[in-house]
């Protein structure tokens, strides 16, 4: 069977290995497995969310409220925007897909950093669009501007991952706002803020304000409930932008794209302030252990404003494979052509065991 030619250029996204796979392949008990590969919240699911899911499980036979009124109201209150400034997706990935289909095609291109979230490129290739990347691994806005000016007639979308996944670096908010003013208003700028809450906690200068983003003509902010809010398995993301952008994206959204329980869970977790604070405090307290370890062993790393840290280590693939046999799942970044390992910041006991095994291998 013949498929569209541009599919041959697409490499499938490689997620972190699931726990179930390690159980099957190595016969390791589930309680002995540590998964720090996909930047999930190690605190587990909020108790408030668990309660809400139990209360609403009996309604799983019904289609969800397609207006998503409760969740939009909660996000509107959080960011001081209106429901018309919001679109909800099955993870922020789905909103990225909407954006690509709304603005990119085989006659246009997108612009990203050299090393960043791979789904930007994958979705762009779905529609046959070109992908331009800056020379540096990390975000350099001077390079973004230079590449944009060179290919301005082609580039329809610019993706800024702030903070950046999988490296962890983060631009200052003022830098981003100044950059936006230099870009043609018909070019869409996407601010992927999947880890923005972590950056805000560490350094307020890094915080991108979704309210401010909604006031621009050509910019959208993306958020997710998969990281800080511990709902990776519920698949809820969102976009914040002006009404014109949102109304056009909404034409691409299928009905009932978010489940009843996912909507209830996302709305509830926004109210669980103790869970959120606990997550943020643990994250950056434990991150210092990894930074100390890296300095002790002369391992290169980039200061991270996220819930993960990336170590640049020789033979990273071999190290990851050896750790898998011990029931420790980290993210090997070979798919990015990097000799590096991305490690989600876990709980104290998890991190202690990971660092002990890493030291043994090193």
TrEMBL record:
Q: Which domain of life is it from?
A: Bacteria
- Could you tell me which pathway this protein works in? Amino-acid biosynthesis; L-histidine biosynthesis; L-histidine from 5-phospho-alpha-D-ribose 1-diphosphate: step 7/9
As recorded in UniProt, its EC number(s) are: 2.6.1.9
What sequence ranges are listed for the domain Aminotransferase class I/classII large?
Answer: 32-356
What does the record give as the reaction this protein catalyses?
Answer: L-histidinol phosphate + 2-oxoglutarate = 3-(imidazol-4-yl)-2-oxopropyl phosphate + L-glutamate
Which GO BP annotation is one of this protein's?
Answer: L-histidine biosynthetic process
* Cofactor(s) demanded: pyridoxal 5'-phosphate
Q: List GO molecular-function terms, semicolon-separated.
A: histidinol-phosphate transaminase activity; pyridoxal phosphate binding
One Pfam family of this protein, by short name?
Aminotran_1_2
Annotated Gene3D superfamilies: Aspartate Aminotransferase, domain 1 (3.90.1150.10), Type I PLP-dependent aspartate aminotransferase-like (Major domain) (3.40.640.10)
What SUPFAM superfamilies does the database record attribute to this sequence?
A: PLP-dependent transferases
Q: What positions are modified (N6-(pyridoxal phosphate)lysine)?
A: 227
Q: Which UniProt keywords apply?
A: Amino-acid biosynthesis, Aminotransferase, Histidine biosynthesis, Pyridoxal phosphate, Transferase
Q: Which InterPro entries match?
A: Aminotransferase_I/II_large, HisP_aminotrans, HistidinolP_aminotransfase, PyrdxlP-dep_Trfase, PyrdxlP-dep_Trfase_major, PyrdxlP-dep_Trfase_small
Matching entries from HAMAP family are given as: HisC_aminotrans_2 (MF_01023)
Q: Matching PANTHER family, A to Z?
A: HISTIDINOL-PHOSPHATE AMINOTRANSFERASE, HISTIDINOL-PHOSPHATE AMINOTRANSFERASE 2
> What is the annotated quaternary arrangement, including any partners?
Homodimer.
The family this protein is said to belong to? Belongs to the class-II pyridoxal-phosphate-dependent aminotransferase family. Histidinol-phosphate aminotransferase subfamily.
Q: What is the name of the protein in this document?
A: Histidinol-phosphate aminotransferase
């Amino acid at each position: 069977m013949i498929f569209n030619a541009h599919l041959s250029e697409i490499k499938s996204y490689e997620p972190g290995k699931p726990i179930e796979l390690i159980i099957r392949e190595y016969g390791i008990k589930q309680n002995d497995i540590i998964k720090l590969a996909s930047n999930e919240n190690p605190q587990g699911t909020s108790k408030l969310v668990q309660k809400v899911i139990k209360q609403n499980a009996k309604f799983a036979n019904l289609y969800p409220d397609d207006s998503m009124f409760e969740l939009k109201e909660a996000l509107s209150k959080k960011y001081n925007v209106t429901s018309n400034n919001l679109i909800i997706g099955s993870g922020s990935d789905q909103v990225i897909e909407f954006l690509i289909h709304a603005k990119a095609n085989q006659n246009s291109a997108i612009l990203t950093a050299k090393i960043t979230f791979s789904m930007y490129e994958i979705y762009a290739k779905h529609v046959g669009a070109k992908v331009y990347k800056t020379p540096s691994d990390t975000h350099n806005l001077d390079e973004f501007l230079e590449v944009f000016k060179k290919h301005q007639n082609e580039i329809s979308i610019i993706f800024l991952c702030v903070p950046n996944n999988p490296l962890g670096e983060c631009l200052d908010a003022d830098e981003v706002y100044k950059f936006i003013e230099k870009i043609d208003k018909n070019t869409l700028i996407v601010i992927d803020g999947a880890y923005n809450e972590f950056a805000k906690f560490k350094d307020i200068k890094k915080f991108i304000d979704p309210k401010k983003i909604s006031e621009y003509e050509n910019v959208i902010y993306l958020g997710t409930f998969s990281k800080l809010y511990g709902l990776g398995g519920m698949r809820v993301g969102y976009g914040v932008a002006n009404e014109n952008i949102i109304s056009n994206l909404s034409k691409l959204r299928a009905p009932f794209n978010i489940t009843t329980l996912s909507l209830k869970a996302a709305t509830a977790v926004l109210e669980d302030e103790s869970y959120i604070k606990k997550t943020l405090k643990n994250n950056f307290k434990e991150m210092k252990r990894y930074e100390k370890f890296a300095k002790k062993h002369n391992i290169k790393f980039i200061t991270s404003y996220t819930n993960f840290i990336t170590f640049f280590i020789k033979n990273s693939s071999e190290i990851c494979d050896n750790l898998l046999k011990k029931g420790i799942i980290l993210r090997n970044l070979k798919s990015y052509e990097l000799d590096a390992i991305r490690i989600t910041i876990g709980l104290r006991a998890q991190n202690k065991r990971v660092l002990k095994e890493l030291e043994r291998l090193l």
